[in-house]
TrEMBL record:
GO terms for cellular component: plasma membrane. This is Probable protein kinase UbiB. PROSITE patterns: PROTEIN_KINASE_DOM. It comes from Amphritea opalescens. Pathway: Cofactor biosynthesis; ubiquinone biosynthesis [regulation]. HAMAP family: UbiB. The gene is ubiB.
Length: 545
């Protein structure tokens, strides 16, 4: 019933903001066009003076955090959206309507068990930013340090649970009704997203994520992460250092201070590859509302990251597989790409490598030797999706966050430096990473890491060797006993079979003799062929057994 009510609300919002107008210029099947015309509200609810972008933004805000996050991701795709839509959806990044300031202060005091006057020298009850899951207030500690306080929206958990229940229902319908649904694993994808979004509701996890990335980039000229104040952090309240930077999407301000836009874009790509391949721990919510640029050194700009509620991590196998795929793409070795997909099990083992290679080439070849502004990665992804359907490629849920982050990186690259060559920027990094992972340095590093364990276990080696030899001896003794038992059993079976065959021989002889009961001596002379056969078989069986 809750899911049904949620569906009704979505339909009501869809009608109120006349989102059906988005489909009027889209090529649809005849039955879809008919369904569109049968929507009765079209004839009673006027479109009004609002633009399409504003109506879509308001609808997403009303539907809640999951839909707002979808709008945030769309806002970075300027190649897929009109200027009106992109500018309106950009407001979802930090201009979501806030909740009451008095309620926010109450939540902070309850979480930290003290009045704000005791906790902070200054506290601004008016939020400085508001997003889908939380809002942020500025404050000043008594030691003079500026901080920001992040507070989870009240009741947001219930809304998310309702939306997730609806998404699970839709995912199961896709698996049931769509032939390609099971291959795309929609339920697994929704489950992965559920874990991610519920992690955002515990700000202690976000604080831990931020601390980890801060350590990974400590003293790095590429990325700065604000300090976390753990003494003032709880499940629904997070206090961290306040930063003063330029929002990465504010191109005018960046250019006004003579920021090296090319270097800024290239360093963004380097940060991404460093997080994914060096650290296997990456910021997975890199929309422009969470990324700033330091004002200190425009010639060598440094990024500042906030909001670490969504992070991703890859296994060593995933890292190696992705790096080899990227390098094969950069080198246009489509046969290697196809073979890697087969070897990893992403496509069936009986896939025709040559056909798969040709399909990949037709999708990927057009993207090379072009600046980023001329490449539509949306079209490339659509082409790859069609290729995946043809070759039964399975969706890998563990890579969903990585794919989303790649989309965000592309959107940022378009805004900062449209001529950026994403491949040329990333290739040297991956080549260095592969050499470090597979070369002599990697072997030395592995030995160095394991040496303490080896030294710790060295005194135990004699006992371990004795135990191993004793175990082998016991295994040999057990094997010999088993073989002896099997031999005895085999002999018993052979004796039993021999006994049975002897009885068969006796029966055959008795039957041969019984063919003539009147005169046995005469029977031996006139015995028919069947009698001689039975007698011969009986004699042979008795002699052999």
């Amino acid at each position: 019933m809750r899911r049904l009510l949620r569906i009704f609300k979505i339909a009501r919002v869809f009608a109120r903001y006349r989102l059906d107008t988005f489909f009027e210029q889209v090529s649809l099947h005849w039955y879809a066009r008919l369904l569109l015309k049968l929507m009765l509200w079209r004839y009673f609810i006027p479109v009004g003076p609002r633009s399409q972008g504003e109506r879509l933004r308001l609808a997403l805000e009303e539907l809640g955090p999951i839909f707002i996050k979808f709008g945030q991701m769309l806002s970075t795709r300027r190649d897929l959206l009109s200027d009106d839509l992109a500018l309106e959806l950009k407001k979802l990044q930090d201009q979501v309507p806030p909740f009451a300031s008095a309620y926010s202060q109450q939540l902070i005091e309850e979480a930290l068990n003290a009045p704000v006057e005791e906790l902070f020298a200054e506290f601004n009850p008016e939020p400085m930013a508001s997003a889908s899951v939380a809002q942020v207030h500025e404050a000043l500690l008594y030691n003079g340090e500026e901080v920001v306080i992040k507070v989870i929206r009240p009741g947001i958990g219930k809304t998310i649970k309702k939306d997730m229940a609806l998404l699970y229902t839709l995912a199961r319908l896709v698996e049931t009704l769509w032939a390609e649904g099971r291959r795309l694993k929609p339920v697994e994808v929704v489950a992965d997203y559920e874990n991610t979004i519920f992690d955002e509701l515990d700000l202690r996890k976000e604080a831990a994520n931020g601390s980890q990335i801060r350590r990974n980039f400590e003293n790095s000229p590429l990325l700065y992460v604000p300090e976390i104040y753990w003494d003032l952090t709880r499940q629904n309240v997070l206090v961290m250092e306040r930063i003063h930077g330029i929002p990465v999407a504010d191109i005018e301000q960046l250019k006004a201070q003579n920021t090296d836009m090319k270097k800024l874009a290239e360093q963004g790509v380097e940060i991404f590859f460093t997080q994914v391949f060096r650290d296997s721990f990456f910021h997975a919510d890199m929309h422009p509302g969470n990324i700033f640029v330091s004002r200190e050194n425009p010639a060598s700009p440094q990024y500042i990251a906030v909001d670490f509620g969504i992070v991703g991590s890859l296994s060593p196998e995933d890292q190696s597989y992705l790096a080899r795929n990227f390098l094969a793409f950069f080198q246009r070795d489509y046969r290697q790409v196809a073979q890697l997909h087969i070897d990893s099990g992403w496509v069936p083992a009986d896939t025709n490598v040559q056909s798969f290679e040709t399909a990949i080439r037709s999708v990927c070849e057009p993207i090379f030797e072009k600046p980023l502004k001329d490449i539509s990665f949306g079209m490339v992804l659509m082409g790859l999706f069609q290729t995946a359907r043809r070759f039964n490629m399975e969706v890998q849920p563990q890579l969903v966050l990585l794919q989303k982050t790649l989309l965000n990186i592309e959107g940022l690259g378009r805004q900062l430096y449209p001529e950026l060559d994403l491949w040329q920027t990333g290739q040297p990094f991956l080549e260095r990473w592969m050499k470090e992972r597979m070369g002599p340095k990697a072997a030395y590093r592995s030995i160095k890491q394991q040496a303490p364990d080896w030294l710790d276990k060295m005194p135990q080696l004699p006992q371990m060797a004795y135990d191993a030899l004793n175990q082998l001896k016991n295994m040999d003794d057990t094997r010999r006993r088993d073989m002896l038992a099997m031999s005895v059993a085999r002999q018993e079976l052979q004796q039993k079979a021999s006994h049975q065959w002897r009885w068969v021989g006796v029966v055959c002889l008795v039957a041969a003799v019984g063919l003539s009961l009147d005169d046995p001596l005469l029977a031996l002379q006139e015995l028919p062929a069947i009698g001689w056969l039975l007698g011969g078989v009986g004699a042979v069986l008795l002699l052999r057994h």
